[in-house]
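Much of the work behind modern protein science is quiet bookkeeping, done one molecule at a time. Below is the pair of lines this work produces for a single protein:

***
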Amino acid sequence: MHIPEGFLDIKTLAVTDGIGGILLILSAKKVEKDISSEKVAKMGIATAFVFAVNMFAFPVAGGTSAHLTGVVLISATLGGWEGFICSSVALFLQAILFQHGGILSLGANILNISGWGALLGSVAKRFKKFQPLAGGILSFFAVILGSISCAGELYLSGRGSFLRGATGMAIGNFFPAVIDGVITFFVLKFLKKRIES
């Protein structure tokens, strides 16, 4: 789902960068209300985790890539706004340091990866009793939905058919989505047992 530079047209870049920027400002304001040194440390670890997990990428349709995200996992443990910030910072660092996704297309990549992951991760956080199962399932869907929204952005930029692009992207991201879901399930299950014991 990392879209490289030059794949999106100017109007799509403007819209996605604008929405991504607004969500980042909103996230910062939400997190600032309940910030502590412990939370900052946890967010730093979560950012490093997402940065590392996102580096495992596999090429798929349209010159983009499929990979694990870990965003639902960190959002289910820390909160959706926190997960959104951590993942967005990781995506920014990847774009700057490794050209893993474009700088101009950062807004689109943030929406596709951080947006869906944080949204569904915050939903998983509400399922106290069944959080591991909910997190695993929603993690799978976050990757798939991110790949479909990526296909939509490419389509809006005049790069092929949406149906073919979405199908290709969803198929290409299927196994990474399954792995992401399995990892999220087992980590949340482990954390749940630690809290309960």
